[in-house]
Amino acid sequence: MKQTRTLSNTDRTTWSRIAMVWKFYLPYTRRKLYAFAAISTLIEVCILLAADNMPKETVNTLVKMASTLLTVLIGCSALVFAKPKGRELQAMLPALGTEKCIVIVGYVTIIIPLIAVAPTVISYVILGDSHPSVLTLNENATMDNIHFVPAFVFSLLLLEGMALTCLWGVIACRGRAAMRNGLLAAGGVYLASMMLTALTSFCIGFYAAVTGKDIQISDTLFQFLSIICAFYVIFALIKSCRAIKRGQY
Amino acid sequence: MEITLKDLNYRYKSQRQQYALQDVNATIKPGIHLLLGENGAGKTTLLHLIAGLLTPSAGECLIDGAKSCHRLPSILSGVFISGINIDFPMRSIAEMVKVHAPFYPDFSRRMLDENLAAFGIDPSTPLSSLSTGNYQKAKVAYALALRTPVLLLDEPTNGLDIESKKLLQKMVATNVSDSQTVIISTHSVSDLENFYDGVIDICGSRLQYALTVNEILDRLDFGKANTPPPDAIYAEPWVGSFRFVSEKTDENWSDIDWEILYMAARKANNKLLKALNR
Q: What is the pLDDT of residues B18-47, one digit of tens each?
C-alpha cells in the first residue's frame, strides 16, 4: 500500500506535529492543568486573605507551607504520565522522539511551573512589594543574610531536577510501578539536596573556621549547590529524553 | 510495504540466558499472513519488533528498508499493532479519532463507522465500560480503519464470540487491500482460516518457515484417509479416520489444514522442513 505523504509523516521536526503531539497528550494532562491552576489560585487567595486578617507569623507560616505544597506538586507533576494504559501507543505515535520530548519535558519543566507561579506573579504585579510572599521572603533573607538571586536560582534548579527525575522514573518504569518509581525519584532528589546542603554548609563553615576567613556562607553555599544542581538537571534531562525516545515495550 | 527480518535476535533483559527470538530471517510481502506459534514462542515479541516497540538485540527488522526501531514518523505512520496487551489510553474511540488518528494519513472515518456499526458499538461509548470482547472489537475496528500499510493483529479473536469471529473475518477480508501487509497472530486458526496468503511459523523462539500459501501447496498435500499414507509427514486420528500432511506428488491442490501443518512443524519438524525446503 503506497502511503499518502503528508506534513504529518515527514521525518523532520515540525511545529504542526508538535501541536498534534500536544493534542494527543491533552487527555492525560488537561484535568491536571485545570487542577494546578485552581490549586495555585486558591493558595494565592488564601495567602492574600490571611495577610489582611491574620498576624504576620501566621502569614509567614502559610507562605512557607504554600511554597512547600507547590514544590511537591511541581516536583511530582510528571506522575500524569505514569498511567499504565497506552504506553505502547505513545511509543508508536508517528512523531519524532524530539517532538515527544519537547511536549512532555515542556509540560513538566515549563508549563506546570508557570501555571503554579502565575497567580503569585499576577498579584505581585498588582500589589508590588507589599505582597505577603515578598514580605516573607525579604524577612527571611534579612534574618538569614541570604541574597535573593542565588537562593532563587538554586530553588528553581532543585525544582526542575525533582520534576525531571520524577519524569525519568515514571517513563523508564513499566506498568503500575511507574507511579511509585516517580514519587521515590522526586523524593530521593529532595532528600539528597537536603543532605548535600547540610554537608556543604558544614564543609564551608569548617573551612572558614580553620582558615579564619570571613566567608559569606549562604551565598557560597547556594552558588556551589546551584552548579551541582545545574549539572544534575542536564543529566536528568538527558536521561528523561532517552527514556522517552527509546522506551522498550 | 515489505518487511525484512535479517538475523533477528531478541532477548529480554530479565531473561539474559534465553532468547525470545533467535536467528530469524524472512521477507514478508504484502498480503494477509498467519503467525503461528505456541505460547511463549516469540510471536508477540516479533510483532513488537516489527512495530518498533522493541530494539533487536542483534540483527535488523526493516520496513521498506528502514529500521523500525528508529521510530521514524514516515515508518511509524505506516505501521499499527493491535493486541490484547495494547490498551487505548483515551476515553473513547471518538477521542482516539480526534487525537490519535490524525497521525495516520490514510485513516478512513467511514470505514471506522461501518466497522463499529457492524459490531454494534457506539464510538462515543467509554472504553472502560465495554466488555472484554467489545473492547477487543473496538480496537480491531479502529486498527483496520487506520489503513496502515503494515497492520499487526495480535490475537484479534481473543474474547470474541462465534458470531463476532465470523464478522471479524468478513471485516478483515473486505477492509484489507491487496497492497497491505497484515500479520495475524492467533491460537485459534480455524476462526480465521481460508483467507491467509502466507504463514509464518515460530517454534521455541526460532522461525520454522515463512512461506506463501501457494509455496506450501506447491510442496505439501493435505488430506483425510482411513489409514495414513506410508509417506505421510505427519498424521493424526480424527473422527474414525486420519488427517495427514505429505509431500506433494501430483499436480492437484488441496486446501491447507492449518492445524495439521502446525502439529507437523512440532511433531515431525525435520521431515516437514525438508519437504518445505525442497
A: 889 999 999 999 999 999 888 888 899 999
Q: Are B79 and A92 an interchain contact pair (Cβ–Cβ within 8 Å)?
A: yes
Instruction: Tell whether B67 lies on the interface with A, counting CB pairs under 8 A.
Output: no
Read off the pLDDT of residues A100-140 as tens digits, 9 standing for 90 and up: 999 999 999 999 999 988 888 888 888 777 777 676 666 66
Chain A positions touching B1 (Cβ under 8 A) are 1, 3
**Quick check: B73 and A92 CB within 8 A?**
no
Instruction: Kindly report the nearest CA distance between residue A241 and chain B, in angstroms.
Output: 14
CB distance from B30 to chain A under 8 Å?
yes
Q: Which three cell numbers stand for residue A223?
A: 552558588
Interface predicted TM-score (ipTM) of this complex, two decimals:
0.85
Quick check: B73 and A11 CB within 8 A? yes
Identify which of B80, B89, B102 has the shortest CB distance to residue A83: B89
Predicted structure pTM score: 0.85
Contact A89 B86 (CB under 8 A): yes
Q: Which three cell numbers stand for residue A190?
A: 529532595
Cell of A1: 500500500
C-alpha B40/C-alpha A43 separation (Å) is 53
Partners of B151 in the beta sheet? B80, B182
The ranges assigned to domains in chain A are 12-246
What is the CATH architecture assignment of B3-204?
A: 3-Layer(aba) Sandwich (3.40)
CA distance A68 to A182: 18
- Contact in structure between A120 and A42 (CB atoms under 8 Å): no
Q: What is the DSSP string of B167-222?
A: HHHHHHHHH--TT-EEEEE-S-GGGGTT--SEEEEEETTEEEEEEEHHHHHHHEEE
Nearest to B106 among A3, A89, A246 (CB): A3
Residues of chain B with CATH 3.40.50.300: 3-204
Contact A20 B48 (CB under 8 A): no
**By the CB < 8 Å criterion, does A3 face chain B?**
yes
In total, chain B counts a number of residues equal to 278
Quote the minimal CA–CA distance from B112 to chain A in Å: 18
